């Protein structure tokens, strides 16, 4: 069994494929933890925060907001922050991503998604 962070980016997919192809891994387990910080803001919110300044954002009225006076950076606009709006759907999306990455194989390891 191979254990990697959730929301598999390219490096995690690479590691899974290497584990399967080179080490003979027979099972992958996708586990998400509950109350993940990625659930508490949207991609729109996190993309806007660095533009306001480099200071740590503040949390108020159940949302984050920028406290900086600038200058900030617009680079966050180009990042997929992979925020989570539905825990169960997020696990299933991760499993689908991993299966897609191993689709060239005649068989691939079994999956057990967990929340």
* Secondary-structure element order, N to C: HEHEEHE
Number of helices: 3
Count of strand segments: 4
Q: In oligomeric terms, what are we looking at?
A: single chain
Tell me, rounded to a whole number, the average pLDDT.
Answer: 77
List the helices and strands and how they pair.
Elements: H1 10-23, E1 27-31, H2 43-52, E2 58-60, E3 63-65, H3 87-101, E4 110-114
Parallel strand pairs: 1-4
Antiparallel strand pairs: 2-3
Based on the model shown, name its key terms.
alpha+beta; Carbonic_anhydrase_sf; 3 helices; Carbonic anhydrase; 4 strands; two-stranded parallel sheet; 115 residues; 14% strand; two-stranded antiparallel ribbon; 2 domains; single chain
Give your account of this protein's structure.
10% of the residues are buried. The protein is built from three helices and four strands. Helix content is 34%, strand content 14%. With 115 residues, it is α+β, with helices and mostly antiparallel strands. It is elongated. It starts with 9 loop residues before the first helix and ends with a strand. The strands form two sheets. A two-stranded parallel ribbon has the order 1-4. A two-stranded antiparallel ribbon has the order 2-3. The chain has two domains: 1-36 and 84-115; 43-82, no CATH class. It has helices at 10-23, 43-52, 87-101, and strands spanning 27-31, 58-60, 63-65, 110-114. InterPro entries: Carbonic_anhydrase_sf. This is Carbonic anhydrase. It comes from Cryobacterium breve.
């Amino acid at each position: 069994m191979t254990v990697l962070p959730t929301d598999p980016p390219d490096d995690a997919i690479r590691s899974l494929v290497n584990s399967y192809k080179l080490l003979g891994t027979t099972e992958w387990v996708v586990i998400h933890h509950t109350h993940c910080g990625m659930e508490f803001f949207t991609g729109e919110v996190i993309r806007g925060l660095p533009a306001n300044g480099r200071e740590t954002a503040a949390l108020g009225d159940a949302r984050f907001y920028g406290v900086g006076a600038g200058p900030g950076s617009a680079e966050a606009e180009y990042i997929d922050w992979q925020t989570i709006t539905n825990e169960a759907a997020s696990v299933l999306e991760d499993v689908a991503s991993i299966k897609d990455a191993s689709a060239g194989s005649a068989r691939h390891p079994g999956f057990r998604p967990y929340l």
